[in-house]
């Protein structure tokens, strides 16, 4: 039986409250917090803060594109009247617990569950800092008449992030040192510290406009947390046949505990489902597909660069996916693709993907294709991310060695039989295609940083909105303004996508052909090519002028109502 993340909908966990409201109608500190079971029951509600399945797989930045665009990509965000993410209910519940947990007479239980609470406080504040920058730090529940606390100004980001790391250090010291895929442990806290350290360290490095020092301190924290996991946890990269290992890992009903540190669990028995299969195979959710620049970024199977191949720009689908990094054919439909447990070979369905590169990552057996009836577990933290964090942090610090790559990136690439990064060669010959995308890089380590960024993009695509965070921390918002593209077609005509002798797609002008057994798309309406009837790459949302304001859009605005309620709050720059 699958283990299920215990999310108890207790009243005190779900009550709609703000900083000045106590859940006194739900529990009384005089009669609660007396046993370890009380502490367990209260802290179970914290797990509601973790990403939902949709929060994991529903990426839509420049890795996975859809037929509509978020406001962040169009540059149309506005200052909201209320809400907008400036919510403190989760924090209030955590701090209320920390203020009362000491009533339990078992000091070991108190330390353990305080560690869990402080993990979630760190997790909460990391999300707030990413969104707003400076935010008020609260370590205690706010009393109803505590006007000074309720109207305090934002604390400096530096102070808040130091407090976040202190919370994580406490969690690491006091949580169980065990591998439990559905429960927060010491290793989950180490993984979060690795993630936060890399984010904050690189954000400070690439955003001098915020005048934040201490980049190396956070990169060191990412390195040390990653090393602790690498040396002491027993996690490893899941391996199977290279041609299927990556796909099997993500399509497994049960999270593979060798690699997954924490997952959101789903169960047919308990009727806890998500919608992944349906999402990737219908037109109902934006017809997601990989973007062309990401497809171009997958290496050849021998480790050489696809974008060094003559004529790669006008290569058609069948040719461009041959002899590539096996993760490409385990992320999208390529010639020969069959559903798990099936034998029928399937080509991309243009009714389900705007780019032609149809997603298969996380897609499980046809049994779970019904709307809202999928049960594959969703990884929130996994070991491969920790290895990527480690390599990138060391590269950004300038301390990366070939041995570091051998014990991090190599393990990830070994899964699919890909050659490792060669440090000397990467720095000697940086990839011009990658360098063109990342405008902020300079120095002697550019080549290997580009390769690690490539690896991160390929390995973590469609997971946890990592790509948005990466673009923000690297200060590469300009990437979001580029035209999103898909497959290349030379123009109208009939296309055998898998070269099996059967026409799979007809792109036509004028009268619709009467052919059967093929997908039929009208050029100029149902499919748009870069150069019209002269062919080119599919263009997605080409009519929308995407904008990114470099002086504003790396942070979100605070709602007008919050500024009125608290005169000591100051709006983020240029909003």
Annotation keywords:
37% helix; two-stranded antiparallel sheet; 6% strand; 23 helices; 575 residues
Look at the helices and sheets and give the structural class. mainly alpha
Please mark out the parts with pLDDT under 50 across 5 or more consecutive residues, or reply none.
1-25
Share in β-strands: 5-15%
Name the helicity range: 25-40%
What topology does this entry show?
Blueprint lengths: L10 H4 L21 H9 L8 H5 L6 E2 L5 H4 L14 H12 L6 H26 L14 H4 L6 H18 L11 H21 L8 H18 L12 H7 L8 E5 L11 H6 L7 E2 L1 H6 L19 H4 L5 H4 L48 E5 H15 L4 H5 L2 H6 L8 H6 L3 H6 L8 H15 L5 H8 L10 E6 L3 E3 L9 E4 L10 E4 L13 E5 L19 H6 L10
Parallel strand pairs: 7-8
Antiparallel strand pairs: 1-3, 2-4, 5-9, 6-7
Helix pairs in contact: 2-6, 5-6, 6-8, 8-9, 9-10, 9-16, 9-22, 10-16, 16-21
How is this structure best described in words?
- The protein has 575 residues and is mainly alpha-helical.
- The protein is 37% helix and 6% strand.
- The chain has 23 helices and nine strands.
- It has helices spanning 11-14, 36-44, 53-57, 71-74, 89-100, 107-132, 147-150, 157-174, 186-206, 215-232, 245-251, 276-281, 292-297, 317-320, 326-329, 383-397, 402-406, 409-414, 423-428, 432-437, 446-460, 466-473, 560-565, and strands at residues 64-65, 260-264, 289-290, 378-382, 484-489, 493-495, 505-508, 519-522, 536-540.
- It has a three-stranded mixed β-sheet with strand order 6-7-8, with no helix packed on it. The protein has a two-stranded antiparallel sheet with strand order 1-3.
